[in-house]
Design a protein that fits this description.
Blueprint lengths: L3 H10 L95 E8 L2 E6 L11 H12 L7 E9 L11 H18 L4 E5 L1 H8 L9 E4 L3 E6 L2 H6 L3 H17 L3
Parallel strand pairs: 2-4, 4-6
Antiparallel strand pairs: 1-2, 1-3, 5-6
Helix pairs in contact: 3-4
Length: 263
C-alpha cells in the first residue's frame, strides 16, 4: 500500500501533473475542489479498478498505468528561396548546334600574261618574281614557243598577277574571288586584241582561268568568255620531269595548225 509521498514521486517520474483516481485511495490526501470543475484541463491517469476487498482485509492498491500520449510533430515553415534553380533543357528542347564552316584561306600564286603572235600565254611564276632573260624557266618557254612556230620573244602584258591582292583588310580573297579576278583580267586583254589560243601553263593558271585541275594537262579546253585554251604543266615541273616534254610535243602537233593558219 502506497503512502501519499511515494505516490506523488511515482506520478512526478511519469510527468503526470493532474490526475483523479477512479476510487478512493487509502491514506490519500483530500482532493482539491477546483480540480473537480469540468472546465479545468486535466490529464487523467487510468488506474485499474480495485475489486472490493472483504471488510476484514484491506484493499491492496494497484500501481497506476499512465496513458501513452503521442506528442504532435510541429513543422516549422521555411521561407521559399526567391532564386529558382536553373532548369536544364532536355535533349528534345536543346537548341540545335549549327556548325560553322571554317574560313577558306586565300590561295597564293603569281601569274604572268604574255603575248606571242596570235596566242596569249598565262604562265605560273614559281618564284613569284618576273622572268629574267637568263632564267632556266624562261629559256624553256622560249624553246616551246619556237617549237610551236610562234615568236620566241613574247611581249609581257602588264604586271604579274599576285594573289592575295591585299595583306590586310576584309575584302574576300578566297578561291572564287581569285578566279573572277584572273578571268576578268584576261577578258579585258582579249577585248583589246583577240587571240586564237590561250596557253595555260602551270596548275594555278589552269585552276583560276579555266576552273580545271591537273588531269586536264595536254588537253584543249573551251572556256566560257575566254575561248579555246590549252592546258600545260608548269615550267618547273617540265624541268623536274623531262619525260613530260614528249606529251607536250605530241599535243602541240595536233593544235599547231590553229595558230599557224593566222597570218
Amino acid at each position: 500500500m502506497l503512502i501519499e509521498s511515494r505516490r506523488r514521486a511515482y506520478l512526478s517520474a511519469m510527468q503526470v501533473v493532474h490526475w483523479l483516481p477512479r476510487a478512493e485511495l487509502p491514506f490519500a490526501a483530500p482532493s482539491r475542489p477546483e480540480l473537480l470543475l469540468p472546465q479545468a484541463p486535466v490529464e487523467e491517469v487510468e488506474l485499474e479498478a480495485l475489486a472490493p476487498a472483504p471488510a476484514a482485509a484491506p484493499v491492496a492498491p494497484v500501481a497506476p498505468q499512465a496513458r501513452s500520449i503521442e506528442r504532435p510533430k510541429i513543422e516549422i515553415p521555411r521561407p521559399a528561396s526567391s532564386v529558382k534553380p536553373a532548369v536544364k533543357p532536355t535533349e528534345t528542347e536543346a537548341e540545335p548546334v549549327v556548325a560553322r564552316a571554317a574560313p577558306v584561306p586565300p590561295p597564293r600564286f603569281a601569274l604572268q600574261l604574255l603575248r606571242a603572235g596570235s596566242c596569249l600565254v598565262l604562265v605560273e611564276l614559281a618564284t613569284g618574281q618576273p622572268f629574267q632573260s637568263r632564267d632556266p624557266s624562261y629559256l624553256l618557254l622560249k624553246d616551246m614557243l619556237r617549237a610551236a612556230g610562234l615568236p620566241d620573244a613574247p611581249q609581257i602584258i602588264g604586271e604579274p598577277i599576285r594573289w592575295p591582292l591585299l595583306v590586310r583588310g576584309n575584302m574576300d580573297q578566297g578561291p572564287e574571288a581569285a578566279r573572277d579576278f584572273v578571268q576578268g583580267f584576261i577578258q579585258a586583254r582579249l577585248e583589246e586584241s583577240p587571240c586564237t589560243c590561250l596557253w595555260l601553263i602551270g596548275l594555278p593558271a589552269l585552276r583560276f582561268a579555266a576552273q580545271a585541275e591537273a588531269p586536264a594537262y595536254y588537253q584543249e579546253l573551251q572556256v566560257e568568255a575566254l575561248g579555246t585554251a590549252w592546258a600545260l604543266p608548269g615550267l618547273e615541273l617540265l624541268m623536274d620531269e623531262p619525260q613530260r616534254k614528249a606529251d607536250v610535243w605530241q599535243a602541240m602537233r595536233q593544235l599547231m595548225a590553229r595558230w599557224k593558219s593566222v597570218e
